[in-house]
Write a structure and sequence with these properties.
- It is globular, with a radius of gyration of 13 Å.
- The protein starts with 11 loop residues before the first helix and ends in a 10-residue tail after the last strand.
- Helix content is 20%, strand content 37%.
- With 101 residues, the chain is an alpha+beta fold.
- The longest helix is centred in the first third of the chain and has 20 residues.
- Strand 3 and strand 4 form a beta hairpin.
- The protein contains one helix and four strands.
């Protein structure tokens, strides 16, 4: 990502976004053929990209492994909720968090 920051510790706001989208991420991962369950969904690292809103790329601990979750949070004046854009389940801690579609 051009101009992206290094992975950082997630804030309470990022964890709240993850908590709100956990079920959607689970559903999307299973719909894409992943055969697992998120035993936990704890944000451990985050990258953010400011666009017309903010893209968050979050590494979450899901139990024995990790997932990368992409969340889009529109600008506040729109009144629109944050949305799950993509999820990559079944990853390991050493898998680098980076931009993904």
């Amino acid at each position: 990502m051009v101009g992206a920051a290094a992975p950082a510790e997630p804030t309470a706001e990022v964890q709240e976004l993850c908590d709100g989208l956990r079920e959607a991420a689970q559903t999307a991962a299973q719909a894409a053929g992943w055969n697992g369950v998120f035993a936990e969904f704890t944000a451990v690292s985050v990258l953010s990209q400011v666009v017309a809103g903010t893209n968050y790329f979050v590494k979450v601990k899901t139990g024995g492994d990790f997932a990368h979750v992409r969340i889009y949070q529109p600008l506040p004046h729109t009144g629109a909720p944050a949305e799950l854009v993509a999820v990559r389940p079944g990853l390991k801690d050493e898998d680098e968090l980076a931009y993904f579609e």
